[in-house]
Amino acid sequence: MHGPRPELKHPLMMHPRVGFLKPLVDAPNVEIGEYTYYDDPEGPDLFFKKCVLHHYEFIGDKLIIGRFCAIAENARFIMNGANHILSGFSTYPFNIFGHGWEVGFDDQAWRNEVRGDTVIGNDVWIGFEAVIMPGVKIGDGAIVGGRSVVTHDVPPYAVVAGNPARTVKMRFDAATVRRLLEIAWWNWPVDKITRNLDAIRGNDLARLEAAE
User: Fold this and answer.
1) How far apart, in whole angstroms, are the C-alpha atoms of residue 117 and residue 123?
2) What is the domain range of residue 200?
3) Could you say which of 2, 84, 99, 152 is catalytic?
4) Which of 81, 157, 196, 204 has the fewest CB atoms within 10 Å around its CB?
5) Regions of the chain short of the pLDDT cut 50
6) Is 84 among the residues known to form the active site?
7) Are residues 211 and 106 in the same domain?
């Protein structure tokens, strides 16, 4: 037994609302790890259209999501294409409407607002209607509460909630978090993961270390 095949688009026969995203999303500048899934009653096939917003290839920013993440319905990843210039008196994007308004537009001023790639670690749980803002980094093992608005980086194994999202608690003490990041079970071969599911699902660090 080696678990479900990661290339399956719909791994739960009775629940078509759940889908593994790696085989479902074929979009430039998007990287998604194996076994990461999206749950939506309208179908996980709509993930890129519904959930990844203002992602324009010419900007060059990436959405990177690790392995074994769980993404709930209507989570939103706002990409850098949503940014407006903040350095002047007005944030209105006159240039995009043309007819002379594009004259004198400073492309570099807009590029100064680009905040880099959005990176979601491994084994991250993103709750219902959470919003992830451009350039945010979410660490391995973190949990993002439903309807949170994440504007800043989230440490590994933190639980964040609210608008703007704040750390509510850490799931484990600092020494345990450090060791879990070293073990990085999500990078194990799938047969090793399968053999050691009890240790991964449990909370006995010594048992997980023994499986390493």
Assistant:
1) 19
2) 173-212
3) 84
4) 204
5) none
6) yes
7) no
